[in-house]
Design goal:
The chain is α/β, with parallel strands linked by helices. It has helices spanning 9-12, 19-34, 46-58, 63-85, 97-105, 121-131, 165-172, 187-196, 211-215, and strands at residues 2-7, 38-43, 111-112, 136-141, 146-147, 159-160, 162-163, 199-204, 223-225. Helix 7 (165-172) packs antiparallel against helix 8. It binds uridine 5'-triphosphate (UTP). Uridine 5'-triphosphate is lined by residues 8-10, 44-46, 49, 53, 66-67, 70-71, 74, 114-122, 124, 179-182, 186.
Length: 227
């Protein structure tokens, strides 16, 4: 199966880079490839992006330049993951979708960070899934699925096992994009998932090592987005 996987920066770099998480990713990606899956990866900026975007904000830097700083952070994280993946990965963060697909056809793993201001890497992952014609899109986040409300703020929030892209769109609402914003999923990504109708999984960090078995049908505790 061809899959696009997005690793949220908040699990990869929650403060300092999380080495256990990075090692789990390397193990899972190697296993997926051994099972003949084609893998494309996108990584987020995490705390590194947040720190730099906040600094830029304090300095009165315009929003679009704050985004560029966020993108630079995602690419640094991408470079770290590439280094950990070693010879199976394309040696530099990929910045163009078509190149990522070419890299995949060369049997290497492309790792992308951000691309364009005004969105997050959630949107990059949805675009990459579309351009690469992936069968599945997987988001690993620090919230282990899609909830009815932010579980960190609302103790009554319930995790949803399954929902449609339309229900997801309703949940995310039409929040305006701001550099470094927090939401369940970037509204740009949600729109794309709706449009391309790709099966999408939202999983917690603890499921990274289980991804190969999840793809073979094993149960998981995340959320499936499908019609
Ligand atoms: P992230 O993709 O890391 O944001 O982008 P996130 O959804 O908060 O995810 P975590 O924390 O990684 O889980 C960080 C910031 O970088 C800029 C935006 O400002 C975004 O908020 N960015 C990122 C872009 O402008 N374009 C991109 O394609 C990606």
């Amino acid at each position: 199966m061809r899959i696009t996987i997005c690793f949220g920066g908040s699990i990869l770099v929650p403060g300092a880079p999380d080495l256990t998480c990075i090692r789990d990713i390397v193990k899972a990606v190697r296993e997926l490839r051994a099972q003949d899956h084609e893998v494309l990866i996108v990584v987020g900026g995490g705390e590194l992006a947040r720190l730099y975007i906040n600094a830029a904000q304090e300095l009165g830097v315009p929003g679009i330049d704050q985004d560029q700083i966020g993108i630079a952070a995602t690419r640094l994280n991408a470079q770290l993951l590439i280094a950990a993946l070693g010879e199976i990965a394309e040696p530099a963060p990929v910045t163009v979708f078509e190149k990522a697909v070419r890299v995949m056809f060369k049997n290497k793993v492309p790792v992308m960070g951000g691309t364009t201001p005004g969105q997050t890497t959630d949107a990059v992952a949805a675009m990459l899934a579309q351009v690469s014609k992936s069968e599945l899109l997987v988001f690993f986040t620090n919230v282990d699925g899609v909830y009815t409300a932010d579980p960190k703020l609302d103790p009554r929030a319930k995790k949803l096992d399954r929902l449609t892209p339309e229900e997801l769109a309703k949940l995310v609402g039409s929040a305006e994009f701001k550099p470094g914003m927090k939401s369940i999923m970037d509204p740009v990504a949600v729109k794309l998932i709706q449009r391309i109708n790709i099966k999408t999984l939202v999983l917690g960090r603890h499921e990274i090592r289980r991804l190969p078995e999840i793809l073979n049908g094993a149960k998981h505790s995340g959320t499936i987005i499908t019609r």
